Amino acid sequence: MSLTEVNVTINGKSYSEWVEPRMLLSDFIRESCGLTGTHVGCEHGVCGACTVSLDGSAVRSCLIFAVQADNREIKTVEGLASSGEMTTLQKNFVECHGLQCGFCTAGILMSITDFLEKNPQPSVKEIKETLSGHLCRCTGYDGIVKAVEKTVQDNNKEVLQRS
Amino acid sequence: MKPAKFDYYRPKDVSEALSLLESSGFDGKIIAGGQSLVPIMNMRLATPECLIDINGLHDLNFIDSDDHTLKIGTMTRQSTVETSELVKKKCGLVTEAVAHIGHLQTRNRGTIGGSIVHADPSAELPLVLMALNGTLHISSEEETRSVNAEDFFLTFLTTDMMPNEMLTEIHLPIWKGRVGSSFQEVARRHGDFALVAAACQLELDAHDRISDIRLALGGVEAIPLLIEDAKELLAGEKVTDQAVQKIAELVAKSVEPESDLHASAAYRTQLAKVLTTRVLYQAYERAKG
Ligand SMILES: Cc1cc2nc3c(=O)[nH]c(=O)nc-3n(C[C@@H](O)[C@H](O)[C@H](O)COP(=O)(O)OP(=O)(O)OC[C@H]3O[C@@H](n4cnc5c(N)ncnc54)[C@H](O)[C@@H]3O)c2cc1C
């Protein structure tokens, strides 16, 4: 099979590579673009470790072919912090010990970033439902849930201060 | 790199997609959201030689309605349907069901049509389609036809569609009057496929008696199971404990689920009974308003 050219923007930077159509976006991001913050786990869409943002929506990068991302915009965990400053969500993961071993963290951060943008005032049930899209084998998700809850509170405070 | 090699095509419109399907014969497959197809390709359970990517067919990404029918294009993402006010207003059963499909990240990508064509017996959308007897619009290069849900699902992962055909739209009837619906499922974890799911929509007359009802169950047979006798048993009745019990017994007798890793047949039968009573009560309360 001939190679196909893929042009994408990842975290604001353009990448252009020739790939086989069967190359998964997750492999493209890690191997062709060298962005290894995105992790690969089950490769059938269950574990959530490879979650990235595609045109603003969280998706499994192991269930998309790189050719399908041609001319699209991607954000990975490396693109969350701006000018060296972590997002509130990232800081709270550190503070509440939501990181744990760190393998699934990148995907969780990408999912929750999208989730909180669409639903800024989630209930704990909704937070847990969203986290059910990620398999973490460390513990009972307690620190992760706390980190998300704290982020909601911090965001609320920030909105209050601004108004 | 896990999937086997394939040729990749990105048609610009429906007619180009149909001609690619026609020329690739049994070796070609449509890819929509890829949330079912890519996992099985990654496991090499499927090795299509040619993938026809319909993500660029924006004409098939729409939600629309007239007085009688809600129309959804096959490429509409599940997350778009989930948050659509029009769908909620015209056909709340769909809104309720879609929230149970997988997770935020899979709904962002998965499509309405892909779920229906995939026809998993535990999937939410095929069940809702059966519960409401929606209509599937299917095209090939030679013809365009429509099929009712009751005739569409054949067995596990198999529908009345040929390899050269493509689903373009689904149409759902809009019920008017005092209508209530309910969707309930039991899964091992939120977002997992249902062990058993139940969907019900009913209409009441001015005296709170049932004038029309559709009740269907998922996860108990190879295709979504329509409980046809529900209408006969309940028409003209109120939803009383007695009436509900009668239907629940009927359901327990008529389902023949299989045992698997996740649940025994006996447990599935019990769930079918319990979920039937829950959707009946809830749909009734909602119809009463
Ligand atoms: C972790 C995870 C959990 C999930 N949980 C659930 C769940 O709880 N409930 C549930 O219902 N689903 C679930 N799914 C599957 C769901 O996400 C898929 O979106 C859906 O089953 C298929 O839709 P798709 O658009 O992704 O289709 P694809 O995967 O692209 O296609 C599926 C099949 O349909 C065919 N096809 C697609 N569109 C058309 C068309 N227009 N015409 C003809 N053929 C077509 C394809 O060729 C393929 O055979 C889950 C998936 C994952 C990864």
From TrEMBL, chain A:
Q: Which InterPro entries match?
A: 2Fe-2S-bd (IPR002888), 2Fe-2S-bd_dom_sf (IPR036884), 2Fe-2S_ferredoxin-like_sf (IPR036010), 2Fe-2S_ferredoxin-type (IPR001041), 2Fe2S_fd_BS (IPR006058), Beta-grasp_dom_sf (IPR012675), Diverse_Oxidoreductases (IPR051452)
| Domain named 2Fe-2S ferredoxin-type: residues | 4-80
- Output the superkingdom of the source species: Bacteria
Give one Pfam hit by family name.
Answer: Fer2
Pathway the protein acts in: Alkaloid degradation; nicotine degradation
- Entries under CDD domains matching the protein: fer2 (cd00207)
Q: Name one GO molecular function term.
A: metal ion binding
Instruction: Check the record and name the PANTHER family matching this protein.
Output: OXIDOREDUCTASE WITH IRON-SULFUR SUBUNIT (PTHR44379)
Q: What is this protein called?
A: (2Fe-2S)-binding protein
Automatic annotation (TrEMBL), chain B:
Q: Which residues cross the membrane?
A: none
Q: Does the keyword Oxidoreductase apply?
A: yes
Keyword Flavoprotein in the entry? The reply is: yes
- InterPro entries, A to Z: CO_DH_flav_C (IPR005107), CO_DH_flav_C_dom_sf (IPR036683), Diverse_Substr_Oxidored (IPR051312), FAD-bd_PCMH (IPR016166), FAD-bd_PCMH-like_sf (IPR036318), FAD-bd_PCMH_sub1 (IPR016167), FAD-bd_PCMH_sub2 (IPR016169), Mopterin_DH_FAD-bd (IPR002346)
Under PROSITE patterns, the record lists: FAD_PCMH (PS51387)
Q: Which Gene Ontology terms cover its molecular function?
A: FAD binding; oxidoreductase activity
Among SMART domains, the record links this protein to:
CO_deh_flav_C (SM01092)
Q: Which residues form the FAD-binding PCMH-type domain?
A: 1-177
The alphabetical list of record keywords is: FAD, Flavoprotein, Oxidoreductase
Per its UniProt entry, which superkingdom is the organism in? Answer: Bacteria
What PANTHER family does the database record attribute to this sequence? XANTHINE DEHYDROGENASE SUBUNIT C-RELATED
The identity of this protein, by name, is Xanthine dehydrogenase family protein subunit M
